[in-house]
């Protein structure tokens, strides 16, 4: 399967889940927090890395680097491993089987996720409770400024940022 065809097929799957294509990624918009999915191509092979992140809507979308929280571990490890295999275009999986499995796994992995972190307050809770959340410093700075009622000690490892 060619890269262009693979990305087109993934786009169809993500659109069926409510994501909209924006430049090189897909967004499922929430009220305050949106979900962001993108495929990162390996420099060394025809492997794509599946990325799932949260994005604060009030942060400037063009500055994605400063406006996201990595959230990949929130997706079940089994899903991520299977997605990784399917995103490796050098393996011998038949194209139709690859895309059928990809649709099945993305449906399972992303189903209902849009209801978990819908507000900035829930995003703060997610960041503070999940070892798999990797917020950037601008995200923490923004959340601290906008939610000053949260005690400094509550921020844990982020309190000195």
Main sheet: strands, sense, barrel? 6 strands, antiparallel
Quote the average pLDDT. 84
Q: Given the structure, what is the number of helices?
A: 5
**Class per helix and strand makeup:** alpha+beta
Name the helicity range.
Answer: 25-40%
> For the largest beta sheet, what order do the strands appear in spatially?
1-2-3-4-5-6
Q: Cα-atom Rg, whole angstroms? A: 17 Å
Strand content: 15-25%
Q: What's the shape?
A: elongated
Q: Ends: how far apart?
A: 45 Å
Helices, strands, pairings?
Layout: H1 3-16, E1 20-22, E2 25-28, E3 33-41, E4 48-56, E5 68-70, H2 77-86, H3 95-110, H4 120-129, E6 134-135, H5 137-146
Antiparallel strand pairs: 1-2, 2-3, 3-4, 4-5, 5-6
Helix pairs in contact: 1-3, 2-3
What does this protein look like?
With 161 residues, the protein is an alpha+beta fold. The chain is built from 5 helices and 6 strands. The protein has a 6-stranded antiparallel sheet with strand order 1-2-3-4-5-6. A hairpin with a 4-residue loop joins β2 and β3. The chain is elongated and about 55 Å long. The model has no long low-confidence stretch (mean pLDDT 84).
In short:
By secondary structure, this protein is α+β, with helices and mostly antiparallel strands. It is built from 5 helices and 6 strands, in the order αβββββαααβα. The chain has helices spanning 3-16, 77-86, 95-110, 120-129, 137-146; strands at residues 20-22, 25-28, 33-41, 48-56, 68-70, 134-135.
